[in-house]
Amino acid sequence: MTMLGHDEPWKQWRDACTGERMHHAWMLAGKRGLGKMHFALQAARELVAEPGISQPEGGHPDIIVLDRLPKDDKEEKKRVEGKPYETKRNIAVSQIRAVQQRLTTRPTLGSRRAIIIDPSDDLEKGASNALLKSLEEPPAGTYFLLVTHRPARLLPTIRSRCRILRFPTIPDGELAKLLNEKAADADPATQRAAIIAANGSPGAALDFVERDLGALYSLMQRILEQGDPDFELRGQLAQTLGARPNRERIQATLDLSRSVLANALDSADRTSYPAIVEAHAELVTLTGQAPTYNFDAGLLVAEIGTLLASAAPLRERANV
Question: 8 CB contacts (<8 Å, ≥6 apart)?
Fold first, then answer.
């Protein structure tokens, strides 16, 4: 199944596969929620398959996926049981080292092996340096697919050794069709808000509906339009987020707040531009810090609310 926006990436990938020399490292770059990991898995299966060799239906011995591990034994038990679980903040150097040990052996079924790292943005420093060594001297028949939402977080030396495959955002009309198919039970107002908040990402639009982020979105819009001089809206924002939100809900809240500000630029007058741009830049920084800092959820949502209030019209910015 080809996902929305994947036609051009597939063309580039398959053209490369049939060329004389396939590049050994690829960076799959684009916003979160564009289906890059789905593409990576399907592309890896095509890459390692060879005529006359039967391929397994499920997990493949020549496709290695590195992602964030469960954060402790309790969360590992949840993963084994097929339940939602919390992960560590980063992909560790020990995971890269373990893969490098496997690369000293031949692929199991054919002559090719694929290593997928999702997301490569979350490699800890030691892991990035270890990966760089493998990219500099890749074993024969080994190919790397680095899924990345924020390419700038990768080492320049890693980026320079990868061929970039960019995934485009999706027009609002296509997102509306997707939500009509996949989230038909959602009311029209929620669907419209999901499209605005997703900013071109199908995964983000569906996530908006599934996580019931409509109330958060409405509060953010009110803070941005009205300010919050008595801190009442920021208190409601904290209550709506919840006392102990998991990392995924926090990330979705940060992404949503950036989308609210980005979309505000379309209708803002020029005098409001500097405040909106500055608040958005601060939220980008906060989003980058969130995976590696142990933020208190209440303080984090208060900071989000304060940044939104700082971008409200001048007359509404009192006590931000």
Answer: 168
Tokens of 267: 């209708």
Per-residue tokens: 246: 């998991």
Nearest to 291 by CA among 124, 133, 137: 124
Backbone dihedral angles phi then psi of residue 112, each to the nearest 5 degrees: -125, 150
pLDDT tens across 288-307, in order?
A: 777 666 668 888 899 999 99
The pLDDT of residue 296 is 81
Count the Cβ atoms, other than its own, within 10 Å of residue 185.
Answer: 7
pLDDT by residue (tens digit) across 236-288? 999 999 888 887 888 889 989 998 998 888 777 788 889 999 999 999 888 87
Contacts of 36 (CB under 8 A, 6+ apart): 28, 29, 30, 118, 147, 148, 167
Q: Evaluate whether 307 touches 257 at the Cβ level (below 8 Å).
A: yes
Amino acid at 226: Q
pTM of the model: 0.83
- The runs of H, that is alpha helices, within the chain are 7-17, 36-48, 73-80, 93-102, 125-136, 156-159, 172-182, 188-198, 202-210, 214-226, 232-241, 247-264, 273-289, 297-310
Sequence-separated (6 or more) residues with CB below 8 Å from residue 141: 107, 111, 112, 113
For residue 169, give the nearest of 194, 147, 197, 199 by alpha carbon.
199
Could you tell me if 219 and 237 are in contact, meaning their C-beta atoms sit under 8 angstroms apart? yes
Measure the CA dihedral 43/45/50/55, to 10°: -160
How far apart (Å, rounded) are the C-alpha atoms in residues 178 and 187? 14
| Contact criterion met (CB below 8 Å) for 59 and 81 | no
pLDDT at 49: 95
Superfamily of 7-166 according to CATH: P-loop containing nucleotide triphosphate hydrolases (3.40.50.300)
